[in-house]
Amino acid sequence: MRRIDDSRFAAAVHDGWDIGGHANGGYLLALAGRAMAEAVGRPPLTITTHYLRPAPAGPCEIDVTTVRAGRRLATATAFLSMDGNRVLQLLGTFGEQSAGGPAAIAAGPIEVPPYDACTAPPAPDEGPGPAMMERLAIRLRPGDEGFRRGAPSGRAEMYGWFAFADGAPIDALGLLLAADAFPPAVFNTDLPVGWVPTVELTVHVRGTPVPGPLRCAFRSRFVADGLLDEEGEIWDGSGTLVAQSRQLALVPRG
Amino acid sequence: MRRIDDSRFAAAVHDGWDIGGHANGGYLLALAGRAMAEAVGRPPLTITTHYLRPAPAGPCEIDVTTVRAGRRLATATAFLSMDGNRVLQLLGTFGEQSAGGPAAIAAGPIEVPPYDACTAPPAPDEGPGPAMMERLAIRLRPGDEGFRRGAPSGRAEMYGWFAFADGAPIDALGLLLAADAFPPAVFNTDLPVGWVPTVELTVHVRGTPVPGPLRCAFRSRFVADGLLDEEGEIWDGSGTLVAQSRQLALVPRG
């Protein structure tokens, strides 16, 4: 990524981060989020993106506008464009968590079998390209990978682990990627859903992960009227919630 | 609300929709969402707002930019400003649900005692002003209103019913209001939290309510490091989920 001026960044949607020619939504969010974080000088705390059109591989530009910069938080809008067409439109607030203070955690870490007991997503016909498969070391809960063999679990859930293949630490931008790197949870139902174009994705960054793979849980509870939700929780190895996500996606017919 | 031109609207933050002088977040979202819906000619499907500063009563302006208008969906950004200062920054996609198609609902309607068995929020010292109390007919689950008497339930939950006092039907804009019209769920814990300034609120409109009060459930599961989440579900009387919400808010100390 190259900074053109205070508010504009030149970058590239790299080949191989796509599924059937459309770049992964988490990858695009992390790319745009990185430009926004650089422009405001703080890490993402909550960021929303709307996906306007599919992104092929190729050069892109991110335009950032800071709408408020306070002592603790800064809010910015941005869009990512390719060939002059907007692909992502974003809104985020940036800043650090403030350690300590009142705390109440009403849920424990999600339960996932150990990393080595989980399985890599099956090599797909229409699945993520080589770069994504080589750079990430995602593991799925046994059974949750069955959809590719025509044996969906029957539950709209996708549980597992997220890590970088080289073991690199996962920062706030990595969490944005992790929030949309798993196969859609709805693939584990019997519904005739072949792809799930995201309309909107919001990620709340809730902590800085300790080193090691992250426990991830994604589920869709409401598939109806051409739309579905997908909620995600991401926990680190110390038992801390590090991110929450939710998206609204289209359910194309047939 | 008065349309100034294609993209600008003049409106007012009315007196009495405030809590301690700060206009209610759902009210402001509905106000800005109405301008955005008018500008793009479609109802809100998913809308995110970031709150930049408190809004006193007074005149405001909403500036809308349509970033994509497709056959089914349109995406727009907007900001609401007062005296030239941005108060809300918004991003939304607008359009209709598309009835039918694949469906899978993994959760039933939330359980709330009957409307008449629930209680009006207690008259508060620092609570919503007269307009909000007169226009809305919110009822809280017995026990969930105890926080005002110094008897919080101990659970970060706020369940109850939402209706307009005059029984008016609740449309998509009404759902935006309902998504942030209840007292914060965290008030039902023992934490020393006196107010909860919202950073970000996202609402997904999932259906058109049938006439009658709406069942609402709000809960905070993760209060930590100066931030909290609050998730909401809104169901209508026919047992249909009509909206989902989530917000990230600050937890001021002490």
Main interface by residue count = A-B, 58 and 58 residues
- The topology string of helices and strands of chain A comes to EEEEHEEEEEHEEHEEEEE
- At the first level of CATH, what is the class of the largest domain in chain A? Mainly Beta
Q: Could you estimate the helical fraction of the residues of chain A in percent? A: 10-25%
Quaternary structure type: homodimer
Determine the mean pLDDT of chain A: 93
Question: What does this 3D model show about the protein?
Answer:
Two copies of one chain form a homodimer. Chain A has 254 residues and is mainly beta. Chain A has two domains: 1-96, Acyl-CoA thioesterase, double hotdog domain (Porin); 112-254, Acyl-CoA thioesterase, double hotdog domain (Porin, Beta Barrel). Chain A contains three helices and 16 strands. The first copy, chain A, has helices at residues 25-40, 130-135, 172-178; strands spanning 2-3, 8-13, 18-19, 22-23, 44-51, 58-69, 74-82, 85-94, 104-105, 139-140, 157-162, 198-205, 214-219, 222-224, 227-235, 241-250. In chain A, strands 1, 2, 5, 6, 7, 8, 10, 11, 12, 13, 14, 15 and 16 form a 13-stranded antiparallel sheet that branches. A two-stranded antiparallel sheet of chain A has the order 3-4. In chain A, β7 and β8 form a beta hairpin. In chain A, α1 packs antiparallel against α3. The termini of chain A are far apart.
